[in-house]
Structures are given as structure tokens and as C-alpha cells.
Amino acid sequence: MRALVTGASSGIGKEIAIYLSKLGHEVILVAKNEEKLIKISKKIPNSTYVVCDLSNKDECINLYNKIKKQDIDILINNAGFGKFGEFNDISLDDELDMINVNIRAVHILTKLFLKDFIKRDKGYIMNVASSAAYEPGPLMATYYSTKAYVLRLTTSIYEELRKTNSNVHVSVLCPGPVKTNFNNVANVKFEIKSTTSEYVAKYSIDKMFKNKLIIIPTLYMKILIFFTRLTPTKLLAKISYNIQNKKR
């Protein structure tokens, strides 16, 4: 099978691409940093790359048009980033870029490739959200909100596919803290112990191929998310703020 992986220049995306290659799949790496893509592509057998700024709507559509004839079987929407700080202090341009990458690019690529997958009645889509999708995110309000969108979009599509007995499978990955460059971009330090991107990549792809809808890589995060669902929203926002504030 042939897979397209966005945000493949580092972190979870890179490790997913490496693992898919080890499983024997062809991989197309997508990111906007060509220098990193060249280095990574040389290390991954059966891989090619496409430079794309996913914050740009036209480039997202051009990416699809460029490779749609290659019969993509697996779409991994991994690209995304966060910004830390008070909502009123963060640059509007930065937030709009975040929304474009974390939401709009995921929406565009999911819709375009899903149409093809449905026609062929096969394929896998995994959208990368976060455990942040389950709670308010004071001090990272926009990031948390974007991940909630990804979670709800994916679970909604899942039910539509199920109702039609489709052989197309969608999954959403909701990891907790992971040791990646995301932390540097967002300018945060996690109090909770982080897992490795290698572990998350292998775990998530294995679960995706087993048609798992919501993929949460660690038992600790599964328990935490369970209790999150039972906690009143105002209390959860207060707890979340205190946790986030320690990242300063």
C-alpha cells in the first residue's frame, strides 16, 4: 500500500513514516522544510517527498491534485503545532496559521482523499488530535480547540461510514505528552512524563490497521481521559489552567 504522511519532517510523523516503511508500504512524506525531508527520505526505503505549506489552502489542494493518481491507500494527517500563552496575548496571525494547519488542512485532505477511498471502497485515514481534545485549554486555548475539532470530525465521519457498511476506516490518535519538537515550538515543558514518538507511531499504526476508532497510546492517558469526562467543565478548566501554568 501507499501512504501519505503530513508533518513527516520530525516527531510522530517521521516515526510513523519509518514504521510504515518497515511494514513494506511506500511512503510519501509531506512537510514545508525541504532540507529535513531530503535527509529523512534518504533514510526511509520506498519513500518520496513533497514540499507543501499546509497553512495555505491552495497548496493543500495542489498536494492532492499532484498525487491523487498514485492511488493513496493510507492518509495520515499528522501536521500541527501549538502556541502557549494567554489568548489575548498570542499573535492573531500565529493563531490563524495554527487553525489553518491543525483544522483546515486536515479537513481538506480528509474530504478529498475520503471521496476517492469511498469510490474504491478501501483505505485508511488517521487524523492526529491529542488528549487535549477532551478538555478546556486555558493558556493554549486555540490549540486545544483545534484538536477538539479533529476528534469530533473524525468520529462523525466514522459513523457515516459505518452506516453505509463502508470498507474505508478512519481513526483519530489522541496521545498525551510526547517527546517531540512540538514542545519547543509551543514553548512548554510537560510535568507529566512524556512517551516516545517511536512508541506512539508503532502503537497507533497497529491499532489503525485493526480499525480502532479512538487511539490513546498509554494506560495513564486512558484513565485520565476517563475521569476528564466525569469532571464538571468549570472545575476541569481550573485544573487545566493550573497544570498549564506550571509549563511556563
Tell me what you see in this structure:
The chain is of the alpha/beta class and 248 residues long. It has a single domain (2-245), classed as 3-Layer(aba) Sandwich (Rossmann fold), CATH 3.40.50. The protein is built from 9 helices and 9 strands. The protein has helices at residues 11-22, 34-43, 57-67, 92-120, 141-163, 182-186, 197-209, 219-230, 233-245, and strands at residues 2-6, 26-31, 47-51, 74-77, 123-128, 168-173, 178-179, 195-196, 214-215. Strands 3-2-1-4-5-6-9 form a 7-stranded parallel beta sheet, with helices on both faces. Helix 1 (11-22) packs across helix 7 (197-209), helix 3 (57-67) runs parallel beside helix 4 and helix 4 (92-120) packs parallel to helix 5. The radius of gyration is 17 Å and the shape is globular. The termini are far apart.
The gist of it:
The chain is of the alpha/beta class and about 250 residues long. It has helices at about 10-20, 35-45, 55-65, 90-120, 140-165, 180-185, 195-210, 220-230, 235-245; strands spanning about 1-5, 25-30, 45-50, 75, 125-130, 170-175, 180, 195, 215.
